[in-house]
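Quick one, T. Sequence first:
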Amino acid sequence: SFLMASLAVSPSITDLGTTAEPALPPTTKTIEILQSRPPSKPTPSPTEDYLPRKLYPGTYGEFCGPTPEVLVTQACAVHGWHADKPRDRVDEACEMHDIAYCKCESELLARRKAPLEELPMLSSMTALRFATKPALTRALPVDNEYFECINKADRQIITTGIQVRSEMQQSGCSLDPSLSWFCDLGQGTLGVFEKVNLDIFLRDLDFDERPDKQIALKKLEQKRQLDLQKELQQGKNLAEAASSGPVQEDEQQMLQRLLGPQ
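Structure tokens:
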């Protein structure tokens, strides 16, 4: 968040225990000096040096990207990378996701009666738990309640992503021009959703549930992409293809899985 630096004020003589002379009005020269100073710069985000940001610097808005912008050391107070207000619905979904992860970590520390200190790399390792869970459970004091809390947060951001994508594509991205990239099918729109491949979260949720008879979320997403392409190949525009029966059925299957019993 933006934290504007204030001008440093030297201690007055009164602060040193002696009587100060009445303050004099600023001279014209003093005013000129103050006005000539460059504007104060915002302090960097507390996560500016966060390792995943250096390894993968891509971000979107104030909250999307490979960094948790809401920290337990700040009591999960909301702040973004460079501003505190999300720019759009996508950024808002990322903000909610950051808040949820922070609350999961805070509750974990409370259960452990541990100091309110951020556990290093916890959020990043958790976001890759389909590959890191064994190491995560050995290295950090996480429990099943923490993973259940995280699972709920990941369900929510994927649900929002599917809903926003559907609305945008069915409108031909006319509803919100700032989110027109939902109509760019080149990179996979769920991946673009957070500038970090959200297929990761689909894999996490499939890993959490280890579906047996149910179709994995990742496979449902792939089926949705294939069905959309088939509709487009029939000469339909994107709005028509996204509104078609097969694509709508694929989305409903995914949403039923995501919004079902927790």
